Amino acid sequence: MLFAIHAVDRAGALPTRLANYDAHKAFLSDTSRFGVKIVMSGPLVSDDGATMIGSLFLIEAPGRGEVEAFNRADPFAAAGIWEKVTITGFLRRQG
């Protein structure tokens, strides 16, 4: 099953995001211990097209529990960067 993780940064989180970026990227390089696969991911950006304001993931996983465990273990979550995280099932229709 596919799941979308939509995570919006708290106000003023950009310096903390940048300080934890390498740890976040390393974490994402191997998701096998959570039983999930990243289909695609990347930062959400403001209307200027460059300033990072959150994260979006499309995850393939056996169930919601694996996705929640994966998200909780992300260094960005541990650093308190995200103000709001929504995890929603997703049915692919095109693409």
Automatic annotation (TrEMBL):
It holds the Pfam family YCII. InterPro entries: Dimeric_a/b-barrel, Sec-metab_biosynth-assoc, YCII. Residues 1-90 form the YCII-related domain. Signal peptide: none annotated. It comes from the Bacteria. Belongs to the YciI family. This is YciI family protein. It comes from Bradyrhizobium zhanjiangense.
